[in-house]
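Q&A log
Question type: sequence-to-structure
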Amino acid sequence: MSVLKLRRDMVVVDEETAAAKAAENDKPFPLRKIEPEAVDEDVIEGEVNEETADDEADDEHHDKSLLQRVRFWFNAAVIVAGISAYPAMVIASSGVGDGDIGKNALRSDWTAPWVGGAAALMEKHFNDLGWASDAPAWSPMARLTAKPAYQAAMASSLGDFIKLENAQAVAGGRADPDLEAASRLISSGSNAVQLLAARDALTNYDRRLRRRDVSNVSTPGEVFEQLGLLTSWSEVSQQEIAASAKSVGGNPFDEDATRAVYSAKGRAAVAY
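Response status: OK
Response body:
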């Protein structure tokens, strides 16, 4: 009996457990209610902020592009203006001051009238017109043809005349250190510093003549030598102009013709 009872208890226990499990399995699976997610306002604001940032980036890019264009055209305008102005500067610096030579100096204010003319001529080219041989390579004056030829011939003629005056002064017992210094400083290859130094030396020479109250009247022989020097200048000028006319067929724009003509004008300025 005890065995059967034990078995019956076991069966009962098993049936209850199975029934409980079956009951649990028959229960419906609980469904979870999914609530709609709330709209995140921060996300919307983030999207708006991104669009605003893109617009600002586009505006900044547009501003930079506009600034670059303005800068480019400004630089281009400066370059074009510089290129256009250079020829004008060349023309402006080509003057040789031969418009009215008679106004260069009042010779009556000088003891030796020729000294006043020579000093005024050198001072005008040093202070007002500029000395072409001293111009830097980038300067418009360095590109000229007429002015260097004019000034070289002028300086050469001045040097020859001052040398003649010094030789005549020495021969006549009137030697002067300033006149001798000026005769050594002036030549066709002189620079602006030598030109100014010669001008100062001639000024000192004229002052010394005034203090000594020495007559500067040339003798007939000295005048004849001076006229001979001037005549030689005219002969050289005629020969150079004739040679250039034959070589280029009379073309006035040829460099050789320009040099010949302006060299003649430089000698004529000194002779005057």
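Response note: The first helix runs from residue 2 to 26.
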